[in-house]
Amino acid sequence: MTAADMHGPWVDPDWESGLVQRVREFWSVPITELPDAGLALFLRQRIALEPVLAEARRRLAAGEADDTELYDGELAAAVAGVTKPAEPGAAPGRGPCSGS
User: Does some domain include residue 50?
Assistant: First the structure.
């Protein structure tokens, strides 16, 4: 399963940024083959959230690190950011997985 399988084929936006480049790079990569940095990116952006979160938790539990994180603990921090309760009054997410 890929982000493309869940959200459809990549559609280039009307702008270019480092974030857009990184998401595009990983869009059609099977989730189980994403590097840790790609999993963390998708978690922060709420892309293919359920399968990405499951794979990230699996890797963390198994102690499988691939040395692609931007900093030590990036993947764990991204998982924690997804699973922590929302702060009162916080707006709901508006990523590809939120239907917006």
Answer: yes
